[in-house]
Amino acid sequence: MAALLTCVNAFKQSLSGSSFEALSAATKDSLQVVSTGDPNTPAGWIEEVWAGNSAHKMEWEIFSQRFGDNQNGLRGQFMFNPTLSGADGVPQLAFPRTVDVPVWSSDTLNVSVNGTASDNANVGYQIYYQNFLGSEQRLAPYSLVESAVRNGISGNSRVLGIEVTVTPGTTGNYGTAVALNANDDRLQADYDYALIGYTCDQPVMQFGISGPDTGQYRIPMPGHWDARHTSDWFLQQSRWRQSARVPVINANNKAGTFLDGIDPANPGATKLSLYFAQLPTKFTG
Amino acid sequence: MAETKSDSKSDGESFPLSFTKQETGDVHWNVANGRWETITHGETGEPNSEYILAATIDGVNVPIASYNAGRLETVVKSLKAAEAKSGS
Predict the structure, then answer these.
(1) Could you list the pLDDT tens digit for every one of the 88 residues in chain B?
(2) Do the interacting molecules here have an ipTM over 0.85?
(3) Domain A2-132 class?
């Protein structure tokens, strides 16, 4: 059994409006927490929540019998910010940075929003399973990665930004996946690279990276407009929790490692730079 | 210091505004094709576009803001759907 960092996204196009209505899980995502066979120990933790709406403010909630309460559970607000050119504040990072809320084996979460009729809404969350059966990811602690960056390799700095152009789906779902090396093929064969963070040329609710090194599960990357949030996203995720959250990708898997995106408002093709630190030795976990 | 009041108030000047849609012209390197190519939408294949709000000041067209075309057109689609609903 191993740790797994992944995400779940839910969405609805053209809301009915004026009352809470359920969102559906995006393609291949499930609102059901994995079964661990132990009902009294947390199966995992929700570590981040993000939300987006195409045209107005809205309210969102995540609830179940075992998550908050079975009425509104964890209920939050999404602020629509029309002063931001085009993006209107999508995504908003709606969760406390260092407080993670447990989820329980086989529990099915409900994700709903209360918004304006005809708007498109998305809500997603990052979930971390400590003991996940059947899949393994390569996740490093920030201390190892910071040390690798500081020391360099053989007198060279080996921090690269790799550009990938990612298009979120047109209808609020995940878009077409693009290989890590489709637009920028500079990773050095056989080396491991720690994904520190990323920047993008326009806000997108969430990008995802998946491949052999992520156990084929999507690791989420909210595309916040403020690069201070994103450029060290994984380092901060790890530092806040004093636990491994930095994905490590082997260069030999570049063609089998894919990026995709999801957003309520079809923002179009988006340039994404992934900040990779080359590790001097093979990461063994 | 005593507060002073201006005797006259400027009526201000007006400037013509324009709102146009145009392609962004963004390019990226395509490894498979080995060349710089225009960025296109992953599903529709269309190039990225934006709406430009501009003002003509002293004969010069000054861009004030640009808006992602996909996002604005999603709002248009939503408003049309809402109108159709309220009309039915």
Answers:
(1) 455 555 566 789 999 999 999 999 999 999 999 999 999 999 999 999 999 999 999 999 999 988 899 989 998 988 898 888 887 6
(2) no
(3) mainly beta
Report the predicted TM-score, pTM, of the whole model to 2 decimal places. Answer: 0.91
**Contact between chains at A170 and B50 (C-beta distance less than 8 A):** no
Residue A79 sits at the chain B interface (C-beta within 8 Å) = no
3-state secondary structure of B20: strand
Residue A233: strand, helix, or coil: helix
Calpha distance A16→A136 (Å, rounded): 40
Q: How is residue A191 written in tokens?
A: 């080396």
Task: Give residue-wise pLDDT tens across range A228-261.
Answer: 999 999 999 999 999 999 999 999 999 999 999 9
User: Which residues from chain A sit within 8 angstroms of residue B26, using beta carbons?
Assistant: 201, 269, 271
Residues of B in contact with A266 (CB under 8 A): 70-71, 73-74
Q: Is B42 in contact with A176 (Cβ distance < 8 A)?
A: yes
Structure tokens at B75: 């709002």
Q: Which of B39, B78, B85 lies closest to A55 in CB terms? A: B78
Cis ω on the peptide bond leading into residue A222 (within 30° of 0)?
A: no
- Per domain, the residue ranges of chain A are 2-132, 139-278
Residue tagged 């990938």 (tokens): A164
